[in-house]
From TrEMBL, chains A, B:
This is Xanthine phosphoribosyltransferase. PANTHER family: HYPOXANTHINE/GUANINE PHOSPHORIBOSYLTRANSFERASE, XANTHINE PHOSPHORIBOSYLTRANSFERASE. Homodimer. It comes from Chengkuizengella axinellae. Belongs to the purine/pyrimidine phosphoribosyltransferase family. Xpt subfamily.
Amino acid sequence: MEYLKQRIQNEGKIVSDNVLNLDSILNHQVDPKLIQQLGVEFAARFHDQEITKVLTIESSGISVAYATALALEVPLVFARRKKTLMSDNIYCERVPSFTKGIVTDIVVSSEFIQPIDRILIIDDIIANGDALKGLINIIHRSGAQLTGAGIVIEKAFQSGAKEIRKKDIRVESLVQINSLENGIIVLA
Amino acid sequence: MEYLKQRIQNEGKIVSDNVLNLDSILNHQVDPKLIQQLGVEFAARFHDQEITKVLTIESSGISVAYATALALEVPLVFARRKKTLMSDNIYCERVPSFTKGIVTDIVVSSEFIQPIDRILIIDDIIANGDALKGLINIIHRSGAQLTGAGIVIEKAFQSGAKEIRKKDIRVESLVQINSLENGIIVLA
C-alpha cells in the first residue's frame, strides 16, 4: 500500500485537525486502476471467509466495494441514505455523519440481505465509525453473518475502528492516519 | 445486450406506468460481472473519442461509470448531490429528479474538469434527462469537450434522450424501454 500512502501524502488536503479532503483520490474523483488494486487486496484478505455479498453505503465507498465484489465474484449491495422508491421491507438505521455534521437514515432492503448470507462490509474511510455501526446493526437485524469490514483509510486518532474491534469484529484498514495536526499528514 | 434484457424482464418491478424498480440489478444491488460487461461495451462504443475522463452522478451510476473508466484507463469523476467539504471552486446545477419528486443541487469541483478534458458521461437510467442535462451544463461551463453519454437503460417513452440528441449530442443507450403500461415491460 506504499503507492496509496504516497497518493494520500501528495493529494490529501488537510481541512482541520480532524478532517482530510481526499476528493482527488476517493470522494469525488477516483483512479480506477488504484481502486482495482484495493479491491483485489480486500478480496485476498477475506478470501477464506466464504463471502456471499459485499455491502457498502453510498456514495464514496461504491467504487472500491464494487472492485472487491468483482474480485470475490459476489453481488454488491449499497445501502441508500434515505427512503426512495424501495420495497416496504427495509432495514433502516439512523446515523450521524462526522464530516457532514448531519444525521441520515441508511436503508437496506431486506430482500438483499438474507440470513444465509455471509457479508463483507467495504467502505472508504472510518472516523467515528457511525456509518459502519449502522451497517453492522442492519446485518445483525437481518440474521446474516458479518465476516468483517475492509476500510481503505482508518483515522486511527478517532475511536470508530477501535470500538468496533472491541466487539470482536474484524476491521482491516489499508492505511492508518495517526494525526493531521499542525498541517502534517502522519501515516502509521 | 440480450442478457441485460432478460435480467430487466425477470427482475424489474413495475411501480407505475412511468417507473420501473431495478433495485436488484442497478439501483441497490449490482452484479459486478454484468456491470463489467456494460463498462467494456461503453468503452468500445466510445474508444475512438480520446476520452480523458468519465463523469457520472452519485450514486446508482457509479459502478458502471467506474467499470467504463477502468476499461478506458481514465479517471472517474462523480458529481455530488450537495455541497459537502468541497473546494470553493465548484460548478453547481439545480436539477429536478423525476423518480424522487425532489430538486437537488449537483456539484462538480472545477479542479476535476479542465478545458483540456474530453468527457464521457455515464449513467444508469435516463427518463426526463434532468440529471444528464445538469451534467452537460456543467461540462459546457467548464470549457471541456463533451464526447457523448452512455446510458444503461433509456426510457424511450419519456423525452430526455430525444431532447438531448436534438442538440447533436451523442447518447448511446444499451437497452430501450418502450412502455411499462398494463404491467408489461416492453423493450425495443
